[in-house]
From TrEMBL, chains A, B:
Pathway: Amino-acid biosynthesis. Gene3D superfamilies: Aspartate Aminotransferase, domain 1 (3.90.1150.10), Type I PLP-dependent aspartate aminotransferase-like (Major domain) (3.40.640.10). InterPro entries: Aminotrans_II_pyridoxalP_BS, Aminotransferase_I/II_large, HistidinolP_aminotransfase, Peptidase_A2_cat, PyrdxlP-dep_Trfase, PyrdxlP-dep_Trfase_major, PyrdxlP-dep_Trfase_small. Residues 147-183 form the Peptidase A2 domain. Belongs to the class-II pyridoxal-phosphate-dependent aminotransferase family. Histidinol-phosphate aminotransferase subfamily. The keyword Membrane does not apply. One of its GO terms (biological process) is proteolysis. It comes from the Bacteria. SUPFAM superfamilies: PLP-dependent transferases (SSF53383). Its cofactor is pyridoxal 5'-phosphate. This is Pyridoxal phosphate-dependent aminotransferase. It comes from Oceanomicrobium pacificus.
Amino acid sequence: MPPRLTPLVESLPATVPFVGPETQERTRGRAFAARLGANENVFGPSPDAVAAMAAADAGIWCYGDPENHDLKMALAAHHGIPPETIMVGEGIDALLGYLVRLIVTPGTPVVTSAGAYPTFNYHVAGFGGTVHAVPYRDDAEDPDAILNALRDTGAPLAYFANPDNPMGSWHPADRVQALIDGVPENALLCLDEAYIEFAPAGTAPPLDPDNDRVIRMRTFSKAYGMAGARVGYAIGHPDLIAAFNKIRNHFGMNRSAQAGALAALADQDWLAATVSRVEDARDRLSAIARENGLAPLPSATNFVTIDCGGDGDRARAILAALIERDIFVRMPFVAPQDRCIRLSAGRPDDLDLLAERLPEALAAVGPA
Amino acid sequence: MPPRLTPLVESLPATVPFVGPETQERTRGRAFAARLGANENVFGPSPDAVAAMAAADAGIWCYGDPENHDLKMALAAHHGIPPETIMVGEGIDALLGYLVRLIVTPGTPVVTSAGAYPTFNYHVAGFGGTVHAVPYRDDAEDPDAILNALRDTGAPLAYFANPDNPMGSWHPADRVQALIDGVPENALLCLDEAYIEFAPAGTAPPLDPDNDRVIRMRTFSKAYGMAGARVGYAIGHPDLIAAFNKIRNHFGMNRSAQAGALAALADQDWLAATVSRVEDARDRLSAIARENGLAPLPSATNFVTIDCGGDGDRARAILAALIERDIFVRMPFVAPQDRCIRLSAGRPDDLDLLAERLPEALAAVGPA
């Protein structure tokens, strides 16, 4: 008789939120020529960060500092907030897992949007919570619907991304602040700002870690170009931040990644240059889409979501035709957003390839 | 009103299993001169691993492969076992957390030894389990006591380390196999073999992932010298290994660490040289202890646990005197093992320093 697993684990599906591009490459037996599906930042990290990681690699025999002290102090200075309001973790994915574990037990209602970040839902399900998903409105997450659902369900936790993935849409700071202000007593808004550095000024409400109704998620995976390093951080009330210490994997951070993130944060010029390159790439992505009769949506991120002008089947067919042509790309999961495909900002070479192969893909799929 | 945390989280202490040396350095305001407290491998990883990590750092903008495919295939070939019996994770600490989560709910009894690896207990407590700790026998974990406790408590999970940390003791393979064979139906033995590469031949029972009563934990943190990279792996029955996919952080692995571990595994000559260096260092550590009237215990690990010939207070005083003299060292937590201090294998320079400062520390503490 095999070991006894928990009833919750037995009930969980074996599916995973995302299939990695390497898995697809192995299945296809062929590498992708352009990697535009995972919203990775092809422009890469600051050369200072690469150098800092390489310098740290020889010292990898040491465990990383479990307090992430140096990075936390640098982040505190960068944001002008106390260090005790910051929790560094192994990417936002890990921090979301810890956050859900702090709040969710079997049956706990949790609010998000249908089609929003599936890894959050994965964690909620993994701790037995019940996801209440409200619809998008105008291809954007809907703050009013989130607030209504929080009130209706009595959920202690809601997820809201600004800017949004997978649509690239965003709300101005005052709208998001109104959402934060509307969070009921005893509830918490998880505000995922993974893409915030790409967004126009005035998108992020001021950081206010005295407010215990919101926790902000930030990352080095997107604008800082370090997805493979696994460095994210949460900003919140010190009591909530301290609670992570009760459950987190204290020695979970890669030591070179800590050094790399510190160097990346210090190189704000590189960050600004990256943001500018991403803007150019978004413009070009949008132009390529239009040239092919497709409708790019506005984006405050490092990707452009493109309305393929049909239903989910049409978008899936175009997606498959691009993948067949060695362009790694993903798409929103939930209707009506699944009429779109999502393309990450690429280097000029990546986008040249897209400009060449998108028409071929569309021709292969045929008219709408 | 702050957000509502789970009753379990509210009940957890804020203490953590280990304080990092960097924290101590900040408190002291002074760096350690020798880092011999965390069983890190000062001889470091294979130069091939360092080169592989450095080469991968520029590509850190990509997420790591969530399947850890290449590393898993290499481990499968190395051990002669099917890849579906291997789960790679962010160090054994993370894998222990996942394992406990698979099996433990509030009130679940779990068996370990009093004074064994505290991070395992931390995870058990973190999921609400109840630790039943059996005593060491002759400074070693006691297989019979583990089996008796499994039967008495009906626990679905037990932890056993071979070789043991913090004592350095070990059991021969046939004794461990008898333990595995005695695990009751529906229960699982977590066999932590973090230090196995340092142990004499005949310490590890044959790998047998058809057996669903045992899961083996291995790591690149110790003999492979990559503690800061966070790469561990579990070997177990494919059904159990597959269950990790329901709850793990799929994109949690650092991409450079994946590449480094792959290169480290390929350089078995470096591993053999490291093991030989560690043997020399153990011999020297033991000689230094004896020269100072202390009694080194036999060790199959990269550390030597040293009987200070008194009680816990005396060992703690010697520990404090060493730390004051800039030697980072730790000690067992639980009596009567807390009569000892634990020193990791150091480079010749580290041990020269220890040879110089241990007599000073002992003189400062005074006679037993």
